[in-house]
Amino acid sequence: MQLATRAVVTAALAAAVAVAGYVGGLAVTIAAALLAVAVAVGWPALASLPFRPGSSAVIGLGGVGAVLAVHAVPDQPYLRELPVVFATAILLAFVNEVLRRDGRLRLLDSVAGTVTGTLLAVAAAGWVAISRTPGGEPLVVAGALALAVGSAVVALPLHGWLGSIATTAAAGGAGALVGAVLAGVDTLAGLLLGFAVGVLVASLHVLFDRLPSLERRLPAVAAVALPVTVTGILVYVVGRVLVG
What keywords tag this UniProt record (predicted)? Predict the structure, then answer.
């Protein structure tokens, strides 16, 4: 999958999260769970893990379990069960290695890669947490639209620092626009949130988009979903700081 195609797909996923945030309720939970599944499907191939079915199962269970745990918590703090879910997933990563029958080659790489993938999938629960926070729905919309615009700019033929600056500026502008339009988020908060999202998008672009494995389907699935999942926890943290 080419860079432009991946960027457009990421933008579409982010726009879908923005719509889910506007609708609210169960829609955000479903969107976050699907993002966690996408990471689980593609991350083992992207990270070249040796036992991909087992790693996908651990990442999927950890990511979806985190989303459901945050959805089920009756009151704040909504992330209080997240450490338990992640710790359980780490234990499952070791169980995954015990079940291997391939000589357990690259054991350390396998455990580290599985735990890292689980952490990335668990980050999707941030979307659910901020959507459940009083006044948090506009933050979901602002963060997701900033991500969509920033990801779309990545598809443009801009290179080096120029591309990073354009991505960050576009995401910040989108966040500010949402802050100016929607009640509950002021323009400055939207700008700062969009700026943070833009920095994240630009950083992930530099980190992943030159990997040769992204030409294949499964690694590309993880690459297009990763910015959306990681943005979930970023929006939660920045949103709580800016809005409360």
Answer: Membrane, Transmembrane, Transmembrane helix
Number of helices (H), then strands (E), belonging to the chain: the values are 10, 0
Q: Global pTM?
A: 0.89
Q: Which amino acid is at 117?
A: G
Domain extents in the chain: 3-242
Per-residue pLDDT of the chain (244 residues; tens, 9 = 90+): 677 788 889 999 999 999 998 887 789 999 999 999 999 999 999 988 988 999 999 999 999 999 999 999 988 888 999 999 999 999 999 999 998 887 778 889 999 999 999 999 999 999 999 988 887 788 888 899 999 999 988 878 777 788 889 999 999 999 999 888 877 778 888 899 999 999 998 888 877 777 777 778 888 899 899 999 999 999 998 887 876 6
Structure tokens at 240: 């709580």
Q: Cα(57)–Cα(64) distance, rounded to whole angstroms?
A: 11
Residue 172 CA neighbour count, 13 Å, CB half:
13
Q: Identify the CA nearest to 149 among candidates 175, 131, 119.
A: 175
